[in-house]
């Protein structure tokens, strides 16, 4: 369960923050920032905000004439904005392991959400203690570290709490966006500057259950047939449908076993996803404004771990392909030395972040290289997924080792990846294939530890689609 640290200490920060927290959580996040409290901190605080499953195209999206993420859209225009950042994986666990270690998945070896080969002793890949994490780097640089985590794949027992002192890695699976913001703001008075604060928002992850507070905020939902309405209103039925869509799209089963949604039903799913994006946007606005009010010397980093497919390849979800809708993520850096500027080039999240940590003096500015790599074996082994990709010079080369297939797409001319150019442009295909082979070995080299999973752990993973509908 999650907690926040005790009664705030006295002083200016606590005196300003607690009344501000009450006002912001009452819903005036759209108002101008209140006067900032004085601070003696000369090194910037760092607030690391991760919005799980956020597609890059939703930041500036509009639905029924209304912006889906108005605060982050404005923040992107005023900051360093990377609309084409490439995640190191198309699902959470290997992506976050890479983000906090600065190395690609083939190095750290984190592959699966759960390993169920022995049903009596289910385990999950655990990040080895030998890796130096982002929190450990900030701690070594003299920062106070604090985190609020909401994804079952990133529980403390799986190694993701390394670097946080006891009681500073708060885990509450699936907590709503407003709970993350509330806990983070309440913790601020007890954090000595400079601090590193990490807030992980699980919205807008499936099963896309938006906060009632945003109902109707993006216009009317489509009228639905009774079957569609019943399916998307029932989390268990919807997640079974979600899994059926995934397994059919990747060829694990020959046809759907659950009747498909109508086009109106699919649009309702996208609408619900957008409402969850809006809920996350409002919660992040409250957090950013609250911190700016009392700690103006703060760098903000906002990004996602991966995207989400909505039938672009005939299926939905994430973790099973390396196409752009699953690996292209938004990245915003709000820092005095970083913007405002739009960086439209396709670049690895790891490259940008390593440069940022170097500028802040907490890590080397060496990056993993000019090309952006990505990797997935799917959340569990029986999916039979094994893909790796390289994005370089305006193109992407994707290898599907399990299926014995490959693709080359010119992303500048064909951003939807509809025209495979591997046969028409063999020289370019071979150039990218060779660079991928040099950069990312086919088999992970990391030493992976196993952490035992309890029944409650398995239920938490199953509820958000990471166990394949376990019996």
Would you kindly provide a written description of the structure presented here, covering whatever features stand out?
By secondary structure, the protein is of the alpha/beta class. The protein has 13 helices and 19 strands. It has helices at 12-25, 70-77, 92-101, 105-108, 134-140, 177-187, 226-233, 235-249, 263-294, 324-327, 349-359, 426-439, 455-463; strands at residues 45-51, 62-63, 66-67, 80-86, 123-126, 144-149, 169-171, 195-201, 298-303, 309-310, 316-317, 328-334, 341-342, 347-348, 372-376, 387-392, 395-400, 405-410, 449-452. Strands 1, 4, 6, 7, 8, 9, 12, 13 and 14 form a 9-stranded mixed β-sheet that branches.
Strand % is 15-25%
Largest sheet: 9 strands, mixed
Number of strands: 19
The overall pLDDT average reads 88
Low-pLDDT segments, ≥5 res: 1-40
Structural class by SSE content: alpha/beta
- How would you describe the shape? globular
Helix content: 25-40%
What is the terminal-to-terminal distance? 26 Å
Cα-atom radius of gyration: 22 Å
Number of helices: 13
Concise synopsis of the structure shown:
Helix content is 31%, strand content 18%.
Task: Map the helices and strands.
Layout: H1 12-25, E1 45-51, E2 62-63, E3 66-67, H2 70-77, E4 80-86, H3 92-101, H4 105-108, E5 123-126, H5 134-140, E6 144-149, E7 169-171, H6 177-187, E8 195-201, H7 226-233, H8 235-249, H9 263-294, E9 298-303, E10 309-310, E11 316-317, H10 324-327, E12 328-334, E13 341-342, E14 347-348, H11 349-359, E15 372-376, E16 387-392, E17 395-400, E18 405-410, H12 426-439, E19 449-452, H13 455-463
Helix pairs in contact: 1-6, 1-9, 6-9
């Amino acid at each position: 369960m999650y907690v926040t640290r005790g009664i705030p200490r006295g002083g200016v920060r606590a005196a300003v923050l607690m009344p501000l927290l009450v006002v912001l959580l009452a819903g005036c996040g759209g108002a101008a920032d209140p006067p900032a409290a004085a601070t003696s901190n000369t090194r910037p605080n760092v607030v690391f905000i991760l919005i799980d499953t956020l597609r890059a195209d939703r930041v500036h999206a509009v639905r029924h004439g209304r912006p889906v993420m108005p605060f982050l859209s404005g923040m992107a225009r005023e900051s360093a904005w990377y609309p084409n950042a490439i995640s190191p994986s198309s699902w959470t666990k290997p992506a976050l392991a890479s983000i906090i270690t600065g190395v690609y998945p083939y190095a750290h070896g984190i592959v699966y959400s759960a390993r169920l080969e022995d049903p009596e002793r289910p385990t999950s890949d655990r990040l080895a203690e030998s890796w130096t994490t982002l929190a450990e780097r900030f701690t070594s640089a003299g920062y106070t570290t604090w985190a609020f985590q909401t994804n079952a794949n990133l529980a403390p027992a799986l190694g993701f709490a390394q670097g946080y002192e006891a009681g500073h890695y708060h885990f509450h699976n699936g907590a709503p966006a407003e709970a993350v913001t509330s806990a983070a703001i309440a913790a601020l008075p007890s954090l000595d500057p400079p601090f590193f604060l990490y807030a992980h928002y699980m919205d807008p992850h499936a099963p896309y259950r938006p906060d009632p507070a945003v109902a109707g905020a993006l216009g009317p939902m489509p009228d639905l047939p009774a079957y569609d309405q019943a399916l998307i209103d029932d989390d268990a039925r919807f997640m079974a449908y979600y899994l059926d869509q995934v397994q059919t799209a990747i060829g694990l089963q020959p046809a759907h076993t659950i009747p498909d949604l109508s086009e109106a039903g699919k649009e309702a799913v996208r609408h619900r996803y957008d409402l969850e994006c809006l809920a996350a946007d409002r919660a992040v606005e409250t957090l950013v404004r609250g911190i700016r009010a009392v700690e103006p010397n703060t760098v903000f980093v906002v990004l996602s771990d991966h995207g989400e497919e909505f039938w672009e390849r005939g299926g939905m979800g994430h973790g099973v392909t390396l196409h752009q809708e699953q690996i292209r993520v938004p990245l915003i850096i709000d820092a005095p030395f970083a913007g405002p500027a739009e960086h439209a080039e396709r670049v690895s999240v790891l490259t940008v972040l390593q440069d940022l940590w170097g500028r802040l003096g907490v890590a080397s500015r060496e990056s993993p290289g000019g090309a952006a790599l990505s990797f997935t074996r799917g959340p569990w082994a029986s999916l039979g997924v094994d893909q790796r990709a390289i994005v370089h010079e305006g193109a992407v080369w994707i290898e599907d080792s399990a299926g014995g297939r490959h693709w080359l797409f010119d992303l500048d001319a064909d951003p939807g990846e509809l025209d495979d150019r591997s046969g028409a442009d063999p020289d370019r295909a071979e150039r990218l294939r060779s660079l991928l082979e040099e950069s990312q070995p086919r088999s992970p080299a990391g030493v992976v530890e196993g952490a035992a999973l309890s029944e409650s752990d398995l239920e938490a993973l199953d509820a958000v689609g990471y166990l394949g509908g376990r019996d």
